[in-house]
Amino acid sequence: GGAATANNGNPQGKRFKIGVSIPAADHGWTAGVNWWAKQAKELYPNVDWVIDDAKSPDEQIADLQNMQSQGVDALVILCTESAPITPIAKKLHDAGIMIVNVDRGFTEPVADVFIEGDNKSFGRKSAEYVAERMGGTWDKDHTTLSGAHGNLVILRGISCTVDDDRFNAGMAVFRKNPKINIVSVQRGEWNRETADKAMQNILTANPKIDAIWAQDDDMALGAENALKAAGREGEVWMLGGAGMKDIVKRVMDGDKMFPADITYPPSMIAQGMAQAVSILQVGKDKALQFVPKHMMLDVDLITPDNAQKYYFPDSIY
Amino acid sequence: TKEKGDFDQVELARMMVGREIGDFYPPKRAQRSGEPLLEVKGASVAGFVQDAGLVVRPGEIVGLAGLIGSGRSELAEAIVGARKLSNGTVTLEGKKVNINSVKDALRLGIAYVSEDRKGTGLHVDLDVVANTTLANLRAYCHPLVSAKLQAKRTEEWKRDLDIRAGDLRADVTFLSGGNQQKVAVAKWLDTKPRVLILDEPTRGVDVGAKREIYNLIQRLADEGMACIVISSELPEIVGVCERVIVMREGRVMGELTGDEISEENIMLRAAGVAA
Amino acid sequence: TKEKGDFDQVELARMMVGREIGDFYPPKRAQRSGEPLLEVKGASVAGFVQDAGLVVRPGEIVGLAGLIGSGRSELAEAIVGARKLSNGTVTLEGKKVNINSVKDALRLGIAYVSEDRKGTGLHVDLDVVANTTLANLRAYCHPLVSAKLQAKRTEEWKRDLDIRAGDLRADVTFLSGGNQQKVAVAKWLDTKPRVLILDEPTRGVDVGAKREIYNLIQRLADEGMACIVISSELPEIVGVCERVIVMREGRVMGELTGDEISEENIMLRAAGVAA
Amino acid sequence: MKKFFQDYGVLVALLLLVVIDVIANGWGVLSAGNIILLFNQNAYVGMVAVGMTFVIMTAGIDLSVGSMVALCGAVAVLALNKEAGNHASDSTAIFIACLASLGTGAVAGALNGVAIAYGKVAPFIVTLAGLAGFRSIALVLGGSGEIRSQVTSFGDLGFGGIKVGLFHNASGLPITIYWSLIAFIGTALIASFILNYTRFGRYMIAVGSNERAANYSAINTQTVKVAAYTLIGVMVGLAAFFNAARMNSVGTGSVGSFYELDAIAAVVIGGTSLRGGKGRIWGTVVGVVLLTLISNMMTTLNIDTNWQGLVRAAVILIAVLLQRGSKANE
Amino acid sequence: MKKFFQDYGVLVALLLLVVIDVIANGWGVLSAGNIILLFNQNAYVGMVAVGMTFVIMTAGIDLSVGSMVALCGAVAVLALNKEAGNHASDSTAIFIACLASLGTGAVAGALNGVAIAYGKVAPFIVTLAGLAGFRSIALVLGGSGEIRSQVTSFGDLGFGGIKVGLFHNASGLPITIYWSLIAFIGTALIASFILNYTRFGRYMIAVGSNERAANYSAINTQTVKVAAYTLIGVMVGLAAFFNAARMNSVGTGSVGSFYELDAIAAVVIGGTSLRGGKGRIWGTVVGVVLLTLISNMMTTLNIDTNWQGLVRAAVILIAVLLQRGSKANE
Ligand SMILES: Nc1ncnc2c1ncn2[C@@H]1O[C@H](COP(=O)(O)OP(=O)(O)OP(=O)(O)O)[C@@H](O)[C@H]1O
Ligand SMILES: Nc1ncnc2c1ncn2[C@@H]1O[C@H](COP(=O)(O)OP(=O)(O)OP(=O)(O)O)[C@@H](O)[C@H]1O
Ligand SMILES: [Mg+2]
Ligand SMILES: [Mg+2]
C-alpha cells in the first residue's frame, strides 16, 4: 500500500495520491479556498490529487472514507465543522494516512501538521482595533487597552475552533472595556444571507449602534445590506475580516463604513497541500522529524495606509 | 312549500304503488324520422367497446340499455372525448368530426352527464354556482368572470329545473342526490348542447326527483334536443325512450322501436339470447 | 364454464322478463318467533336518525326500507360503531352493550357490509385475499400472519360464495360489481357474525349475481344468522324479507310482516302517508 | 363563532401578536417605519408564497422554489455581467437580467408542470427532483461559489424604492418602500385578480377540487397545471431578481434555502388547504407577515433566536387547528 | 417486460450504475471493501429511510426526521456527558445515551403521530412544524452550537464494528462492518418482518390504501398511525445515536439537515408510492444504496460534485417513470 511506501521515503519517485477535503464554497472565503486548491493542484502535476468539497460534516466524512478507499497517501483537511470530523481524522491517521489540517482545527491533536491562521491574534487584533476606534487608549507600556465606550454588535461564524479562538480573544479585550455595551452577539455563519437576516433583526431591536465587529468580510457585506435596508448605513462602521478584495479596495478608498480590515488568506490551503507533497517526497517519518507540527500564520491589520499592499484585483477573493 | 312537497309525495307513492306507469312516466312520444344529428359508426374502445354504432335525430330520446359492464358508459365517454376511441367515426349533421377532448365535444354541442356524480360529474366541494357555470365558463367572461352573471344564470336554472338548494353558495355535497343530478344536468344544459347524453340519470335519485327528471328529458327532446339515455333500470328505458339500443359485452345487440320496446325484448338481447 | 354462464343468463333473462318473482327470489320464508338477538331502542344519530328502534331474531331476515336519505345507513353505521349514537340503547341477547367502534361490534358478532364498496366497504387497491381476511386478521395470527392460511380460507370463501376471480392475488378493483360485493360479504362472514347488516347489497350488481346474493342471504338466515337488509329496491325488500321496517326522515314509520309486506304498503309509509 | 375562527382565525392570531408586541415594545412597533420594514423583509418569500398558493390550490406542491431562486438569480447575474461586459448601459443590463430571471423561472416552472401534468408524476416527487436539480445547475453556473454582479447600480436597485417623505425611521431618515415590496404587493394583487376574475383562476380551483371532474367538464387540466407551475416559476424569478439585486450577487449554494418551507408554511397558516380546491391570497399575505413578525418580535424581545423554530411550529399548528373544518382547510 | 421494469426497474438501474462504475473504475469497485464502505456510509440515512417507508405506506410523510436526528443526538450526548460526569462507566453512559436517543425519537415521533391521528392535521403540515420545532429544541439544548461528547470511547463506537479479517481495504487493513451498518441491516430486516408477518404491517397497508375502509374493517386507524410515526421516531433515534458516536459530538444546527429529502428520495426510488397502501423495504434499501453509489461514483470519477444534484434529480424521475403504473407506485 501507499502508506507503507510513504513511510520509507520515495526512492523510486512513486506517484503520490493526496486527498484534499474542503468545505463547499458557501461564502467568499471558502470560495477562495476552493480556488486556491485548484491553483495548487496545477502546481504539482506529478501528484494524483483527489479534491472534493463537502456541504456538511456528513458529506465530508463520506468524502474522507472514499479517499481512503482510493488509497491516498496523505490528506489535507479543512473541516466543515471541527468536532464531527475529528473522530474520522483520528481513524484515518491511525490507518497510516498522513494528515495535514488546515485552518479549522481538530478538537484532538490528530493531525501530523496543523496550519492555521493565528485566530487568537486575529481576534485580539480585531478587538483592539475596534476598541481603539471606540475611544479606548493604551496604557503606557502598550499592554492594556481601556476606556472604550459605545454600542457594539458582534457577529460570529460557524461553530468551530476558529470561531471560538477569535471570539474568546476578542472578548478578552472587550472585558477590559466595560463601557463597551455589547448589544447583541449573533451567528452569521460566515455567510452574507445569514448575517443579513441576523442584522435586520438586531437593527429593529437596537435603535443605537456604533460599531459592528463582523469578523468576516462576507458577514460584513450582509450586515451592510441590512443597514442599507433599514436606512441606517450612515450611523455605523464595521470591521470585517479575511481580506476580500472588494473590502480591501473600500478600505483603500477611505470608505467610512470600512475603516479597516484584517487578513486571513484562503491561500493557506495551498500551503497545506504544498506541505503534504514535500513531506511525502522526503518520506513521512524523516520529514516529520523537522517539519513543525503547528504552523501559525500571523494576520495583519489592513488600514488605508497599507491597503495597497493587500489588494490583488485578479484574485478571486 | 312543505305542504306541496308532502302532497307530491303522497301522489307519487300512490302512483308507484299502483304501478300506473303511464302516469309516472311522461306520455309516450311518437317515433321521429328525419336526418340523423349524431351518427357513430364502428366505434371501439380498447377493452370495453367493439364496433358499436348508433344514430340520434333531433328531438329523439334514444335509450342505451344493457347489463352493468356492457360498455355503454365507455361508448358515451368515447363519443365526448373523455376516452380514446381506438376505432370508428363520429358524424355530426353528416360531417365527420374529430373529438379528442371533452372540450371538442362541447364546441360541437355534445354533452355528457356522467353516471358518477361524485367522481366525475360534479365538484362536490364547490358551490352550486361554480358547478352550474363551470362547463360554459367562457360565456361568463367578457373578458373577466362575472360573478353576478353566474349567480343570475344559476338562479334561472334553479327555477327552471326546480333545484331545491337553499343557498346557491353552499357546496353541492349538501344537496340530495336528485338535486345534485339536476345541477349536473344544468351544467351541461348551460352549454346549449344539441346532443345530450345522460348516464344513469336517476341513480341515487329519489322517486319524486326521478319523475321530474323524466319530464325534463321529454321537454328537452320536445324542444329539439337529441337525447341519449343510458340506464340499467328497464322500466325507465321502456317508459322514457322511443328507440332503444341494447348492448352486450361491448357490442350492439339490436335496436328496438315502438311496440318492440319492452323489458322482455331488452332483457333477451342484453343477455345475448335474441338479437 | 362459459357455457354454464351463458345458460344461466338466458334463464335469468327469461325470469326477469316473465316477472316470475317467485322464481327469481328464493321461496318466501315463514316468520320467526323467539327471543330477539339484537334490539335497538330510541336510537338517534345527530342530524340523521331520531328515536329509531328495531329488533332482529336469529334466523330472521328483516328489511329496512325507505327513501334515499331516510337515515337507514346512518342507523346501521351507528349500530356497528362506525358513527356516534347520540342517544339510545343496543341490547344483544337481552344484555345492554356499548359499541363505540367497529371493533366492539365485531367482537360482539355484529357485522355491517357497507353500501359504498369503493369508499368504505373494500380496499379496491388490495387483493382479494387481503380484503377477505382483513376484518378477522387476528384469526390468521399465531402470532405471525400466515399467508398460507389466508390464501386457504380465501379459496374456501371463493368456492363457497362462488366468487369469480381468476387470481386471488389480483386487486379487487378488477372484479365485477357482484364479485366485489361477494368479497365484501366474505370479509364479514369470515368474522363469524351473529348479526349481519347488508346495506344495498345489490347496488351495481348484475342480475345474475343479484340472485346469488339473495340465495346466500336466505342460506345464512337458515343457518341461524340474524340478517338486516337495507335496500332502496322495493321488489328486493318484498322478495327477500319476512319482516320490513320502514323509515322516513330518520324515524321508523312502521313495521310490516307477512302479507302486509307489499310495495304499496312500504311506499305509503316511506312517503309518510300511512303508518 | 367557530365559523368566524375558521375563516378569520389567522387575522385574529396576527392581531394578538401585534397586541403582545405593542405591550412589550410600546407603540413604536406600529410606526409606519417598523411596519414597512416588516413588509420589506418578507417581500422575497412573499412573492414565492403567493405563487405557492396557486400550485397548492391545484392540489399540488412546489418544493423546488428555493433552488429555483438560486438558479434564476445565477442566470440573472450572469446575464447582467455579460450585458455590462458588452458595454450595454446599466439600465439595459438590469432590464435584461430581470427578463433572464423571470424567463428562467418560467422555464423551470414549466418543466415541473410538464412532468406533473403530462408525465403524471406526483408534484411532490417532481419538485423534490427540482429541488436537487435546479440547485445543482445553479452551483455549476456559479462554480459552486457566489456570482458577483459587476454592475453597482444593480445593487442600488435592491435598496431603491419610493421614498415616503411623511414617515421617518429611528434615525430620522425617510422610509423607503422598496421596489421588491412593491413587486410583492403587485404580485399579490395580480394573483387575487387572477383567482377571482379570470377563467384560469376558476379552473385552478376546479382542478384542485377534483381533477377528473374538471376533465369531464371540458377543462384542459394539463394546461391549467402547467400554467400554475409556470406562474410560480415567474414569481420565483421575480423574487430571485430582487434578492440578487439586494445582495448584488448570488450565493448559489445558499440563496433561497428553505424558501419552500417558509412559503408553504405561510400558505398553510393563511388558510389554504393542502388538499387543493380552495385558496386565498390575502390569507397567504397575512401568513407571510405573521411569520416575519414572529422572528422580528423574538429579536426585539431579546429571546434566544433558537426558540424561533418552536414558536413557528406552534403557530403553524394552532393556525391549522383553528381553521380545521373550514371550507378553506382540511 | 414493462411489468418487469415496473417491479424491478430500480434493481436494473442499480446494476447499470454498477456496470458503469466497473467500466470507469475497474473491478476494484466490486471489492468487498468498497461495497462495505458504500453500505457503511449510508447506514444513517438508511435507517431513517426504512422508517420513512412505513409512514409513506400509511399515506403519510415525515419531514421532521432531519431535525429529529439533531434533537435525539443532542439529548443522547447530553445524557452521555451527564452520566460520565456522574462517574458512570463509559459503557453504562453509552448505553444510557442510546436509550435516551431512542426514547427521544419515540416521543417526538409519537407527538407527530398524535397530532396527525387525533388532531387530524395533514402529515405534511404536522411534520413541517416538527421540522421547525425539533431543530429549535436541539439548538436551545446545544446553545446553538455543537455539543461535544466527553467520552472518548463513544467516538470509538462510531467507527467500531465487526472486523472482517478476510477482506482488506486499499491500505491493507481489515475491513470493518460498522455497528451502524449492522443496525441498518437489522432495522431493514425487522421492518421487512413487521411488514410481512405482523398484523400491524397489514394494518399500515390497509390504512394507507383506504383509511375510511380500514376504519370500517374494525381497524383502529389512529393507533396504527401513531405507531407508524413512533416507529420512524425510534429509527431516527437509532440513526442519531450512531451519527453522534461517529462524530463524537452533535452539531445541533447542521446535523441531519436534508435527511428527510434523502430518505424520501430513497423510498420513492425504491418503488413505494406516496399515495400509500403499498411499500417495499428492499426497494428502499436499494434506493439508499443507489443514492450513495451516485455520490461515491461522482467522487471517484472526479466529476464536479456540483453536478450531483442534477444526476440525483434525473435518477429520481427516471426511477419513478419506470415504475409508474406498477402496483407499488403511482
Ligand atoms: N369487468 C369489470 N372490470 C372492472 N370494473 C367493472 C367490471 N364490470 C363492471 N365494473 C364496474 O361497474 C361499473 C359499470 O361498468 P361500465 O361502466 O364498464 O359499464 P356500463 O355498461 O357503462 O354500465 P353502467 O351503465 O352501469 O355505467 C364500472 O364503474 C366498473 O367499476
Ligand atoms: N340531505 C342530504 N344531505 C347529504 N347527503 C344526502 C342527503 N340526502 C341524500 N344524500 C346522499 O344520499 C346518500 C344516501 O343517504 P343516507 O345514507 O343518508 O340515507 P339512507 O337511508 O341510508 O339511504 P341509502 O339506503 O341509499 O343508503 C348519501 O350517501 C348522501 O350522499
Ligand atoms: Mg358505466
Ligand atoms: Mg345510506
Mind explaining what this structure looks like?
The complex is a heteropentamer, with 1 copy of chain A (317 residues), 2 copies of chain B (275 residues) and 2 copies of chain D (330 residues). Chain A has 317 residues and is an alpha/beta fold. Chain A is built from 12 helices and 14 strands. In chain A, the strands form 4 sheets. Chain A has a 6-stranded parallel β-sheet with strand order 2-1-3-4-5-13, with helices on both faces. Chain A has a 4-stranded parallel β-sheet with strand order 9-8-10-11, with helices on both faces. In chain A, helix 2 runs parallel beside helix 10 (268-282). By secondary structure, chain B is of the alpha/beta class. Chain B has helices spanning 2-18, 21-24, 72-79, 102-108, 117-121, 128-132, 147-161, 177-189, 207-222, 234-240, 263-270, and strands at residues 38-45, 49-56, 61-66, 87-92, 95-97, 110-113, 195-199, 226-230, 243-248, 251-257. In chain B, strands 6-7-8-3-9-10 form a 6-stranded mixed β-sheet, sandwiched between helices. A 4-stranded antiparallel β-sheet of chain B has the order 2-1-4-5. In chain B, helix 9 (207-222) links the parallel strand 7 and strand 8. Chain D is mainly alpha-helical and 330 residues long. In chain D, strand 2 (161-168) and strand 3 (174-178) form a beta hairpin. Helix content of chain D is 72%, strand content 6%. Chains in contact: A-D, A-E, B-C, B-D, C-E, D-E. At the B-C interface, helix 1 and helix 11 of B face helix 1 and helix 11 of C. Bound molecules: adenosine-5'-triphosphate (2 copies) and magnesium ion (2 copies). One magnesium ion (MG) binds next to loops of chain B.
Pick out its properties.
heteropentamer; B: 275 residues; alpha/beta; six-stranded mixed beta sheet; four-stranded antiparallel beta sheet; 11 helices; 10 strands; globular; disordered N terminus; D: 330 residues; mainly alpha; two-stranded antiparallel ribbon; 13 helices; 6% strand; binds adenosine-5'-triphosphate; binds magnesium ion
